[in-house]
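Hey,

Quick one before I head out. I ran the complex with zinc ion overnight. Inputs first:
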Amino acid sequence: MRELTVDLGDRSYPIYFGEGLIQQAGQLFTKHGITSKSPLLIVTDEHVAPHYLSNLESAFAASGYRTASYIVPAGEKSKSLSQLEEIVTVALEAGLDRSSTVIALGGGVVGDLAGFVAASYMRGVKFVQIPTTILAHDSSVGGKVGVNHVLAKNIIGAFHQPEMVLYDLNTLRSLPYREIVAGLSEMIKHGLIWDAEFIAWLDEHTQHLLTLEPEALSYGLYQGCNVKSIVVSRDERENDLRAILNLGHTIGHALEAVSGYNELLHGEAISIGMVGSAKLAVHLGYDASIYHETKRILSKFGLPTQIPTHLNVDQIMNAMMHDKKFKEGSMVFVVPIAIGQVEILKDVSAQLVRQVVMELKEDV
Amino acid sequence: MRELTVDLGDRSYPIYFGEGLIQQAGQLFTKHGITSKSPLLIVTDEHVAPHYLSNLESAFAASGYRTASYIVPAGEKSKSLSQLEEIVTVALEAGLDRSSTVIALGGGVVGDLAGFVAASYMRGVKFVQIPTTILAHDSSVGGKVGVNHVLAKNIIGAFHQPEMVLYDLNTLRSLPYREIVAGLSEMIKHGLIWDAEFIAWLDEHTQHLLTLEPEALSYGLYQGCNVKSIVVSRDERENDLRAILNLGHTIGHALEAVSGYNELLHGEAISIGMVGSAKLAVHLGYDASIYHETKRILSKFGLPTQIPTHLNVDQIMNAMMHDKKFKEGSMVFVVPIAIGQVEILKDVSAQLVRQVVMELKEDV
Ligand SMILES: NC(=O)c1ccc[n+]([C@@H]2O[C@H](COP(=O)([O-])OP(=O)(O)OC[C@H]3O[C@@H](n4cnc5c(N)ncnc54)[C@H](O)[C@@H]3O)[C@@H](O)[C@H]2O)c1
Ligand SMILES: NC(=O)c1ccc[n+]([C@@H]2O[C@H](COP(=O)([O-])OP(=O)(O)OC[C@H]3O[C@@H](n4cnc5c(N)ncnc54)[C@H](O)[C@@H]3O)[C@@H](O)[C@H]2O)c1
Ligand SMILES: [Zn+2]
Ligand SMILES: [Zn+2]
């Protein structure tokens, strides 16, 4: 079992990486002083529940914990205030009190939703994440929780750090292959923004990761969380440094919006976005190898590096301008200046971004 | 203009008490460094808006602030997730960003709702309260914000301290008399739990307060906020001391629940509850004068001191047991041990409480 401490003063917490952690959940809760006097609430989704919910419930029961469970439909739509309201109904009926803990068993959707329940139920109760996707290594560090509004994603939420995170590698075996690949995109991002050695390691272990080889998976998730954790520790409330985590996200979010959130997975969209940022870097005079390396490593993982040809450049530009409310003609952009190093550039010309978007579509 | 600082380290904030503060709102915002680059959002209710909204909007406009406004129906029902969602729609349409401020113009309902919007919009923006009821002197200190769920009041929320509070005494002139009296009940509570001198002052200035004489009103609100502020500063997250603020609330909440939340105002219900606590004190061996004094001062303000005869004792007891999930046969109770001093007793017998409830009904 690997362990990482996310260092946030009196809100610090451990992330455990290992096989079979679900079976040990009850013991780990006891070890961390989580009371069995108050009931626990497990939030999960309909894809995850059939595989792991009853195991988790049994593990808790064996350690003397009472649990209630709630299963949301799979997918982004469940990050809503109406799901929050439903979950609070269940919490009240199960008698959750201020000493209770809310548990997210699932990917980033369940994590964000259950985390916001934990942040707001009785003005805040304990929260534990049991992530079941690779992408959720990203969402399990940083404490951002929340739900969507019809007009904007992640707009209603809080900062609420978990008590701990249990990353049971076995749960990833049931994850669809496309979700595995998309999740690795954020892992590669963590290398690209901070850690050239990690990129070299990812390059060497591509196949081990794609086949979920436990030792490689454990280290990759650990190191991905580690990079995010370092960044978040230095800027918990997103005042400056934390923005580097948005590498690839400006273009990526625009692509998700324009393609209607069903064509591209988030990790796929930001893969294209990261290639775009690397292209931008080269246009701004940085070494051409940044672009070639970024593109090579993402392609090696089977991630897309090109904008689907049917998407419209004007619409993509509009989505970007709207999303971030850029000032006339200039944009804030996270740009790689070497592999493993980025800078936040405050006034990249929108014209240049447009050119990059066009090139990304034509793959030149 | 009086000023009080609520002392919470780097979350400290001022409360201003004075006549005509709404007209000065723009200047006060500028003085406190609130940017005019980002739009403000004013949340108010349909009783308050016709009197004060356009004045407030003009004051902001005169100081170069852009504002959007949203008017909720008056009453407790507006403390809901669906109102939150509506307000977020308005916020997004008005272009509120992370540097924006949400303003509550109204009583405790608007304060709790708008405060939770501020706590959760983009994971937290600035919040300013402009209370328009006397009861809201209580809700403007302590940072508790939130909404109701059909099954439980105030169950979804956050701790979110305001940037400042502008108590414009002029707004209280349009408040219905019954609301004035009910609001004074919480002011008396602040005396009863902490400050015998303040009780003596309240005794002397009863008429001045009931007629909203500005100097008395200003001092009474100031001192009420001051007591709450001292308690909250010592226990911001409600771990122990803060519970003394619940004097009268255990019985009071039960009365509100049993009478269906439309017969008794909150201040009226806790007035009866405070008399109950004083009765309990006497049964526990404390001086009989505690009961007589408590009852006398509340009556002098025209507050009820007796349970309406048609309410059922069993139902009241059930509501109490359910509300606080008391352990078998014993209850936690805030009990006055002198005028201006209370204790939290951990195992008051439910039987004794039942007797007190019966006596409160028969007014013996
Ligand atoms: N809070 C943060 O800091 C943060 C960071 C990144 C992403 N996010 C959020 O995370 C969400 C995306 O996360 P995600 O990609 O994990 O999405 P997800 O939770 O929707 O999971 C993806 C899909 O895989 C299924 N699934 C999950 N685990 C499975 C398993 N073990 N076996 C089989 N199927 C499984 C899910 O049901 C879903 O269909 C977005 O809402 C995004 O906003 C949040
Ligand atoms: N957050 C806290 O710490 C805290 C503390 C105490 C109470 N509260 C909450 O406060 C709420 C009760 O507050 P309240 O008594 O102010 O209720 P309220 O906001 O509903 O106001 C009472 C009534 O007076 C009207 N009104 C308000 N100001 C007026 C004015 N100046 N002129 C004319 N009419 C006016 C309102 O429209 C309403 O009909 C409850 O929801 C309670 O839970 C919160
Ligand atoms: Zn992302
Ligand atoms: Zn009260």
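DSSP finds 14 helices and eleven strands in chain A.

Talk tomorrow,
K.
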